[in-house]
Amino acid sequence: MAMARGHVISSPNVSPVTSVGKLGCRGSKASQQKIKTKIQYSPLRFQQSPFNHHYKCIERGATYEESNKNYVLKAVTVPSSESESEASNSKNIVESVKNFIAVLYEFIYPYALYGQASAAISASLVAIEKLSDISPLFIIGLLQAVLPHSFVVLYINGVNQLFDFEIDKINKPYLPLAAGKLSFRSCAIIVALSAILGLGLNLMIGSPPLIWNFVLCVTIWTCYSVNLPFLRWKQYPVMASLLIFVCWAYIFPITYFFHVQTFVFKRPVVFTRSLIVSLLFLSIYTTGLALAKDIPDVEGDIKHGIDSFAARLGQKKVFWICVFLFEMAFGVAFLAAASSSSPFWIKFVTSLGNVALGSILWYQTKYVDVTNPASVVDGLICSPAFN
């Protein structure tokens, strides 16, 4: 009996049911009952054995060790893989948003946006008659002028890129559309949304000068860029220069001025001395601007039949004509400031400011290589004369 009991306990491959059957043939019922009781408790002793044995559970037929392993795998590995997948998706979304913002920033011509904002601010400041006019009311009116027109600038630049796609591959291959960073369809959607948002914001504000600003700018620059019969006026040098001249010298300053003058301050329509001086300054300034904008684009313009002044007269000659016009504009502003009836410190600061801007422009010209488009953009277009 002792030998039989020891055999059952030490044997690794004997199940409780099989052992009881074998022992039942050799001993009495009492002995079988003792052995059966011993065997029923034996899995607890087997579990602590140093040997790797497998024992079947009577209820489900699966091994105790296997069911324990399945439970651990489900509890540890599955949530870990899901959390890693979620983290990876979140990272991809953030990267996509960052890339889109960077491409959109390149698409809107940042220097054009800065120029528009500075034009709106300077024209609005012309409507200031006394120091108390600089108030929260004026700041709100200034934002009403700057923000909606930012969408107009985005529309103008977007339309130009859509219809200058082949030319930009030569003149400006770094632009998102020409470089393939932005699809033609995405560009068209951005342009359409910009026009809708610009119009919607101006209608919500309800300022008649700003609404006229939007209508005139969108109409003029659509005619300037769109390649349809009787349009695409940019291919005619005189017409192209005239459009730029009218927009920057008259439409922008007059509409921004009257927005603040009549809509914000509720004052009567008056052409003040400051406004007249500003229009005179901008008439000279924008003439140079209209000529200078085509200097970096001569190669592509000639190839695609755009007969600009820079293509006709030569880049270097047009460049120095522009510099002369810009310096003349700063000279007019200097004389107007020096002869004004303002307090001495205002005349001094204004005169000194114009001298400083003219000096910076002149200093910048010696670093400009007119045959290098990037040099022209960095050295002249981004100078104070263009902002």
Automatic annotation (TrEMBL):
Localization (cell): Plastid, Chloroplast membrane
Entry's transmembrane regions: 108-128, 134-156, 182-205, 211-231, 238-258, 270-292, 318-338, 344-363
Domain of life: Eukaryota
Keyword Transmembrane helix: yes
One Pfam family recorded for the sequence: UbiA
One CC-aspect GO term: chloroplast membrane
Topology term for the membrane: Multi-pass membrane protein
Record-level Gene Ontology MF annotations: transferase activity, transferring alkyl or aryl (other than methyl) groups
Keyword Ribosomal protein attached: no
Main location, first listed in the record: plastid
Keywords: Membrane, Transferase, Transmembrane, Transmembrane helix
InterPro entries assigned: UbiA_prenyltransferase (IPR000537), UbiA_sf (IPR044878)
Protein family membership: Belongs to the UbiA prenyltransferase family.
UniProt name for this protein: Homogenitisate phytyltransferase
Organism, as annotated: Vigna unguiculata
Upper lineage: Eukaryota, Viridiplantae, Streptophyta, Embryophyta, Tracheophyta
